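Anyone? Bumping this.
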Amino acid sequence: DTGVSQDPRHKITKRGQNVTFRCDPISEHNRLYWYRQTLGQGPEFLTYFQNEAQLEKSRLLSDRFSAERPKGSFSTLEIQRTEQGDSAMYLCASRTSGGQMSYNEQFFGPGTRLTVL
Amino acid sequence: AQSVTQLDSHVSVSEGTPVLLRCNYSSSYSPSLFWYVQHPNKGLQLLLKYTSAATLVKGINGFEAEFKKSETSFHLTKPSAHMSDAAEYFCVVSGTGKLIFGQGTELSVKP
């Protein structure tokens, strides 16, 4: 399977703990995106990378959140001192940056569902 | 700023009847629009995309959407619903590289 993969698929943690999620994009895709989806809502943009450079961060991404893509391949999203409001599905997507970029499809992974108790 | 509004949070149809999921968009320039589908416990999948080449866009599984600039709409249709179409559908606009999703429409299909 050469699609976008995410690990873990599910994470249950206690309030105040740190968690880290991993995303492996499609290998030839140089753009990688993180989104958050809460119950009954559409996904909301968090941040994106082109290769290893983080080009945009949403206001939703508080200072407890940090994302990296050190070698321009996989990415990690870390949440420090988790709060119950962080409970959500965290989605990763990737795409190429060539051509008419706004038309380029983003390919989504299955997501990591985080539950903060 | 760009945004999309999905006019129905839930649509219920009978199998074999037409499907209409409504979406209005707001954009300060010519938008790039998409419909994505999300089945339970599965990732988001692209149904179709508007690339400005044609106002009527055909997608997978018999879905299509028509871009109407005068009405700022991009409604999704299918002539005949199938049980497997039951899912959450998102209208999406592309903004500076990122995707901006609507709230979603849950489609139920009754036998």
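Late reply, but here is one note on the structure posted above: The mean pLDDT of chain B is 93.
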